[in-house]
């Protein structure tokens, strides 16, 4: 795996890959890579217009066309209705999904709520992806490739500052924007690992594996949006400097997700950058913090998520 790059990705002709947040940052770079290998990439975007612009950019950069196909569709993870509509449309038009990349997210924003009344970071980063995965799971099971279908869930090194306080998951008592982000990223890991445990426990072989990853410090517009949301002009300046000095580019930051989606990794693996402090460099299989492997917290979060979204897997 040393020095792994997209040059080592296998061809994906005939495969369907769904990427949330595909119009910018890591999702954009992952979409470009999947399409260059021949996949049909369903670009699940909150804004169809921005998604279409991103697809046009990928085609333009490739000389007018890509090896695969780009299918832009609306999917607002802050709306369970939008998630359900997206999943139905996909089931109507596709027989199977080979890879689902739960990539989109928001980071350290002021407290607000989703359309369904969830604290936004938990609602978008975890609950929206939980509902999406559950709704698309029959399409993942239906995939008939040479390898298992995969669910890849993007977490963050910030999961280490997360805490699953089940008495106030929605931060109604008090709110810490970075604590809420850390919790949502810890929730991503609980979900990814618990999904694999449930797949393993199923009576029949399902042909699906769940893998988690994190990009390290990748300089994307996610940090800049966080700075803008702070309302402090200095924050944007500091974030730009930090991105320039410490961040790696989005192309490199997307490598853990791409390796988790296409590389030789087991279900339940955690793929991260292998360089300095696991914040930079080529992807490697590592280990998230001890809290992320807490079985009771994972079970409780799953039960909460089922009740909150009204969606569950039937394995």
TrEMBL record:
Pfam families: adh_short (PF00106). It comes from the Archaea. GO terms for molecular function: oxidoreductase activity. Signal peptide: none annotated. Transmembrane segments: none annotated. Keywords: Oxidoreductase. This is Oxidoreductase.
